[in-house]
Write a structure and sequence with these properties.
About 30% of the residues lie in helices and about 20% in strands. By secondary structure, the chain is of the alpha/beta class. The longest helix has 16 residues, at about 210-225.
Length: about 230
């Protein structure tokens, strides 16, 4: 059985009720649920939540909520992998689970095309995980930091005179989805290792949504994409 697991706790702090906050006309979580269902990849699409309102909205958009996530896995410090492992163990009561895909509830730019690419990469490369990533917009080797007195310092001063085109391109997690073999989740295997593969998304489909400023920027990006087809 292949399952999509969407973690969505109710206690978000920086953007209250972020997972179900209206985003361009729909609750944020609706985009993740609809992409999982439309992909045709999954036997079950479930939401792992500790919140009754989130559970109700998730079911309205077609997801299952077969259990309520326990409080000890719903605080500000719980990592993603234990939440997915818990969900897998609950689902295994109904039958064997072979592959689980964690899809974040705050991924309105998610597209079925890239879900399918990641699934095929997982199988073809026999990876433990396959996840979404994108490139940094600026060479990380030329990044600077601010000191206490507001003076600047390079992280890698040896690259001050290196041309940007001569520096190796760097990538980061796009924060949308993570396909994984069940044993990788259950054994708490790290995601960002040589045993994982990445599906590269264009930068215009990636926006972390952690602050009100992020949320506004994401809405502007989404509207621009929608209005331009």
């Amino acid at each position: 059985m292949k399952v999509a697991i969407i973690p969505a706790r109710g206690g978000s702090k920086r953007i209250p009720r972020k997972n179900i906050k209206d985003f361009c006309g729909k609750p944020m979580i609706a985009y993740s649920i609809e992409a999982a269902l439309d992909s045709g990849l999954f036997d079950r699409v479930i939401v792992s939540t500790d919140d009754d309102e989130i559970a109700d909205i998730a079911q309205q958009y077609g997801a299952e909520v077969p259990f309520i996530r326990p409080a000890e896995l719903s605080d500000d410090f719980t990592a993603t992998i234990p939440v997915i492992a818990h969900a897998i163990k609950e689902l295994q009561k109904d039958g064997p689970v072979e592959i689980a895909c964690c899809i974040y509830a705050t991924a309105p730019f998610i597209q079925t095309k890239y879900l399918n690419e990641a699934y095929q990469s997982l199988l073809a490369n026999k990876s433990q995980y396959s996840f979404s990533a994108t490139s940094f917009a600026f060479p990380i080797q030329r990044a600077i930091k601010l000191n206490k007195n507001n003076t600047v310092e390079m992280f890698n001063p040896e690259h001050f005179t290196t041309r940007s085109q001569d520096l190796e391109e760097a990538y980061h997690d796009a924060g949308q989805f993570y396909f994984g073999q069940v044993q990788a989740w259950l054994n708490n295997k790290a995601i960002f290792t040589h045993e994982s593969t990445a599906v590269i998304l264009p930068r215009h489909l990636v926006q972390d949504i952690d602050t009100p400023e992020d949320f506004k920027r994401a809405e502007l990006m989404y509207k621009a994409l929608r209005d331009n087809g």
